[in-house]
Design goal:
49% of the residues lie in helices and 22% in strands. The protein is of the alpha/beta class and 510 residues long. Helix 2 (37-46) packs parallel to helix 3 (63-72) and helix 11 (367-377) crosses helix 13 (403-420). The longest helix is centred in the first third of the chain and has 57 residues, at 112-168.
Amino acid sequence: MPTDVDILVVDDRPDHLLVIESILSSPDYNLVRAMSGHQALLRVLERDFAVILVDVMMPGMDGFELVTTIKQRERSRHTPIIFLTAGGSDINFIYRGYSVGAVDYLMKPLDPDVLRAKVAIFVDLCRKDRRIQAQLEALRAAERRERELELSSLRAASEQRYRNLAEAIPQIVWTALADGAITYVSHRWSEYTGQAVEAAKGNGWMAAVAPEDAESCATRWRGGLATQRVFELEFRLRRREGELGWHLCRAVPELGGDGRIAGWLGTFTDCDALKRACDAAEQAVNARDEFLSIASHELRTPLTTLQLRLNSLHDDLTAGGASPQVKRKLDSSLRQGGRLMTLVDSLFDVSRIASRQLTLQRERFDLIEAARELVERFSEAAAIAGVTLELQTEGQAIGVWDRLRVEQIIQNLLSNAIKYGANAPVEITVGVRGGNATLTVRDHGPGIAPADQERIFGPYERAVSPRNYGGLGLGLYIARENAVAHGGTLALTSVPADGATFLVELPLGT
């Protein structure tokens, strides 16, 4: 049997060491001697021992001090220690040996058979403990290998499932390293572009980008990678047939255990049809705005002339004593002409707003006086609708604004309130708050649902069916744009069935 077990013998007398060594001499043991406590500690630091034999009575560091120090060390805390002494069998002396950690106490002169038997027990326990530890390590290693195999199988199955999913969806799916180099791209890529999957890896996919988009795409790609956040960009890819199609690239970072980006997961989504539809819609809107601009210009001149003629005719007939019937018809014609002129002006304003040509002619005036004049002007239309206009003012609200545009805000809000709040009062409040002039118009109509409260400020938008209420749906849009042009705001609060309140805030200016 190999000498695989070390035994430490500690005694300051060489003759005693020779006696112990002669008793324990065996090819199964490796006897290590130490002639002082300090030498013994050095030996304990160098290796592990199956058992330590310690003479109690040694000069310098005695056996009790040595064992106490050995037991304080984690690695040697459980090493069995046998005290050897020729100092008698005082029970207190023996108890002290057990209290510091000894497992046995032998008296000199030593009985060879007893010594060999006791040492053999601890050596056998040491070997068994080592076998158990070896078996545990082997078991742990086997468990680790089994877990690694299971994890490897799970990873392989997960990766295969991911790839199957990536191949099943209509988008082109890809993965990339932290620097953006493509490591995987689904076969949908080659079906669309005609480029082989392997050729697309790294930066090879850039070859399929439209030449006109390649430079900007590369620049934006690098910029997106540098942000280390989710990013999107649009560019055109060349189809295998040679045509170009718009795609939306969306990239999501994958973080490692240290919180740094380990890679990217992304998609290329074919958005060509949507892009073309949006472009077509934009062109249609531009064409519509251009038409409205031209039409409003062309209509404004003859309408102005017609209004002047009607006013002149009204003055002549009034002076000549026209019949009440003729006068009513002429008044109606003037009102309809004025209404038509208002519609044309609205279309003209929309075209100017869309082309960012809305300019302001600022002057200093009192918002309260302007509101009072407009309330009087709308009193007849309000009376026809069964609406009473109630104006409340607070001091003065003098500022520097475009009078025509501010009056247009008030007109559109009053017209809106009279239209939707028929047969109920409309409260108008004008004042100053926090350095801004404020105008509040509250009606008691059907109110506006929360989902519609922002939408109605768009051009041609309305919260109700045009069959029930006339108009082009431009009043609130123009009113808000006029307020914003002054650096102000137009806000709405409303509860369905409890009316609507519009609040205008305009900086006073200097």
